[in-house]
Amino acid sequence: MQFISQRMWPIRRLSLGTRTQTRLFNNRPPYQRFNNKQKFWQTRTFWYTTGTGTVCGAIYYQSHLEDSPTGRRRFINVSSAEETQLGASAYLQTMATYRFQIVPHTSPVSQYVHKVAHRIIRAANIPGSWEIHVINSREKNAFVLPGNKIFVFSGLLSVANTEDALATVLAHEIAHVFARHSAEKLSAAKALQLLYIFVSLFVDPSAAEMGRSMATLLVELPNSRQCEQEADEIGLEFMARACYDPHQAVELWQRMQENEQMVPQLLSTHPSTAKRIENIRNMVPRALMKKEASCPPNDLTQTFFKQLGL
């Protein structure tokens, strides 16, 4: 028996060692593959930083909200001085691009455009000096830059073929400057760019690219269409104050509709022309009230019959 117990002793020792190894194995730290570290966005630091940044961003956003001329709330963190500086830079680039197509100010076409534009500016009582240029081109378009710079393509005059129709376009462009739509769009672009950088650095660059596309579709384009509609509303009031006929705005856009290329409104920076015509029709009665208040009729006989409802 002693011989057997001596022979069994290594077995018991081996059994004890196995139990020890089993206990150590069960208490080991979780196995991790090579480089399988916890992602930064899964850490507490990330969420503390994100939460603090979100609160600070919300406070900053709220403190930079202001009302547009129509009472619409919007975010603007670009000063008028910055807006003017950007406009001056864009103006130099535009003048360099069209340097051989700028119509001289002494030409009848340029003087005609100047006359209509300044009549609207005086009626709207907008301070500051304006620079107005006509570009010799078949393009049917006009645009405005921050800092009171208006450009009109001569091809537009074939559609805006009356003074009232031209006033519709110019009043619309002047309204963009008055409402500071450039500053509004630039402010939104700066905020979105900051968000893209954050997502690209701390989450996933591919997610940032997808977010950029979604933001364009869901934020930037709708905001641009809203600014265009607001410029239509303000511009209609400006042209009415200048004693132009607001009904001519509807006729102008009907002619523009005949020459336009159809683009889905969802993918456009502007409302569809059909929607635009509908909106302007709804705005005309109010604009006519502004016209009657600003432009009393010169013909007393006409006033007499109007009072009689004839």
Description:
This protein has 310 residues and is mainly alpha-helical. The chain contains 10 helices and 5 strands, in the order ααββααβββαααααα. The chain has helices spanning 2-26, 44-63, 80-97, 108-124, 163-178, 181-202, 205-241, 247-259, 273-294, 300-307, and strands at residues 65-67, 73-75, 131-135, 142-145, 149-153. Strands 3-5-4 form a 3-stranded mixed sheet. β1 (65-67) and β2 form a beta hairpin. The longest helix is centred in the last third of the chain and has 37 residues, at 205-241. The termini are far apart.
> What is the spatial order of strands in the main beta sheet?
3-5-4
Average residue pLDDT: 82
Compute the number of strand runs.
5
| Shape estimate | elongated
> Uncertain regions: pLDDT < 50 for 5+ in a row?
299-305
Strand content is 5-15%
N-to-C CA distance: 136 Å
Tally the helices: what do you get? 10
**What value does the Rg take, in angstroms?**
34 Å
SS-based class: mainly alpha
The helical percent reads 55-70%
What is the ordering of alpha helices and beta strands?
HHEEHHEEEHHHHHH
Major beta-sheet overview: 3 strands, mixed
